[in-house]
Write a structure and sequence with these properties.
- With 210 residues, this protein is mainly beta.
- It has 2 helices and 11 strands.
- Strands 5, 6, 7, 8, 10 and 11 form a 6-stranded antiparallel sheet that branches. Strands 1, 2, 3, 4 and 9 form a 5-stranded antiparallel sheet that branches.
- A hairpin with a 2-residue loop joins strand 2 and strand 3.
- It starts with a helix and ends with a strand.
């Protein structure tokens, strides 16, 4: 039983990780739009023309290869610094072809992924849990991050430490391709997070995709 569970978890992680995984055609590639065009034969460029976000940047759906299950929004970015702790969202991806219940032969599940980075530029201790963030979508979803497939970047972050990784949410009703915007909610707290008097920053970040 333990062996079967381990194989299932490994199968999910191999598909949903945001970093590239070599020849695995189902892995999400960590490459720029320019690099993607160089590696494949010349094709007609296809991009969306979404409305500008609050920062004035218009997120663009990146061209992808035919065997890639993910749709990339490399321009769906966000960053903020609070008390010397810098939090950043570096890209958003969506798919309606994720493994359903860990079965890599059944790519019918829907998922959203975010590449996240947090850096403590101070000499103080902070605590944050972006890997437990709640996700709200324009399609009416409100779900918690998947702890099995997401990178564990949450918890205490000591002075000078940088943590980055991929956070994954599986949707309950699917149709990730219809998502126009997403919202993430999490917090950063000074210290170990165990005392009510510690300073706390609650984030609610909305990113326009289309």
């Amino acid at each position: 039983m333990k062996k079967t569970l381990s194989l299932t978890v490994a199968a999910i992680a191999a598909v949903v990780l945001l970093a590239g995984c070599g020849a695995d055609k189902t892995a999400i590639k960590d490459e720029t739009p320019t690099q993607a065009k160089v590696e494949s034969p010349p094709v007609k460029e296809t991009k969306t023309e979404p409305a500008a976000n609050k920062e004035g940047t218009a997120p663009v759906e990146t061209e992808k290869k035919a065997d890639d299950i993910w749709t990339y929004y490399n321009d769906a970015k966000w960053t903020d610094t609070w008390n010397g702790v810098k939090s950043s969202i570096e890209k958003v991806v969506v798919t309606d072809r994720a493994p359903k219940d860990g079965n890599t032969n059944d790519l019918t599940a829907s998922a959203v992924g975010v590449k996240f980075k947090v850096e403590n530029t101070t000499k103080k201790l902070y605590t944050t849990y972006p890997d437990q963030a709640e996700l709200i979508t324009s399609t009416g979803e409100q779900v918690q991050a998947d702890m099995v497939t997401s990178d564990h970047i949450g918890g205490e972050i000591e002075e000078g430490v940088i943590k980055d990784g991929n956070i994954i949410w599986f949707l309950k009703r699917g149709h990730a391709a219809d998502i126009k915007w997403i919202k993430m909610k999490w917090y950063v707290i000074e210290g170990n997070g165990m005392e009510a008097t510690q300073d706390k920053k609650e984030y609610s970040v909305k990113l326009e995709l289309k």
